[in-house]
């Protein structure tokens, strides 16, 4: 009985907003544009880039990830180092602490990406997650021309996963 409750609870947490894997932009192309860490500087205008330090005098800054960061970061705000939104390009880059990211199992990573991807999708943005070394870890790409929006999550779009082992050649 307890295992059935646990299974239902886990499944229910993923059913809030389904992620479709059809007709989304190519995940590999989503990470071809590099992470622009220089965009975090105060030189950039709010029309060009929005960061976690951007404050709007008129109201809520759009897109807003502050609440999502407080709610969905499993390490109490320490997993996310920063986020950068590009209104003209319609994508958000989240920079994570790679050490903490590596502590998450696949399901925890999926949940994190799906929760932040849902927030990004609600603002009509795609999402990319990077580490500080500019390595693209995950993309959450949507085709906003469809109704409902069709989205795809792609882990390690560079083609390498944390589970791969390099071929070792031994010379005796």
Mean pLDDT: 75
Uncertain residue ranges: 8-25, 159-172
Number of helices: 5
Shape: globular
Structural class: alpha+beta
CATH class annotation? Alpha Beta
Work out the radius of gyration.
17 Å
Largest sheet: 6 strands, mixed
Give helix and strand order, one letter per element, not per position: HHEHEEHHEEE
Domains counted in the coordinates: how many?
Answer: 1
Strand percent estimate: 15-25%
What share of residues is helical?
Answer: 25-40%
**Annotated CATH topology:** GMP Synthetase, Chain A, domain 3
Cα-to-Cα separation, first versus last residue: 56 Å
CATH architecture designation = 2-Layer Sandwich
If strands are numbered along the chain, what order do they take across the biggest sheet?
1-2-3-4-5-6
Number of E-type strands? 6
């Amino acid at each position: 009985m307890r295992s059935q409750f646990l299974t239902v609870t886990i499944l229910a947490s993923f059913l809030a907003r389904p992620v479709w894997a059809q007709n989304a932009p190519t995940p590999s192309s989503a990470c071809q544009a590099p992470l622009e860490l220089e965009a975090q500087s105060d030189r950039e205008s709010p029309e060009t880039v929005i960061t976690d330090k951007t404050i709007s005098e008129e109201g809520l800054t759009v897109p807003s990830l502050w609440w999502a960061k407080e709610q969905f970061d499993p390490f109490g705000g320490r997993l996310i180092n920063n986020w950068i939104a590009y209104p003209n390009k319609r994508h958000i880059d989240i920079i994570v602490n790679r050490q903490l990211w590596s502590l998450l199992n696949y399901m925890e990573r999926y949940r994190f990406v799906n929760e932040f991807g849902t927030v990004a999708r609600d603002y009509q943005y795609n999402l990319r997650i990077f580490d500080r070394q500019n390595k693209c870890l995950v993309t959450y790409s949507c085709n906003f021309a469809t109704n409902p929006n069709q989205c795809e999550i792609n882990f390690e779009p560079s083609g390498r996963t944390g589970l791969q082992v390099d071929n070792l050649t031994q010379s005796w």
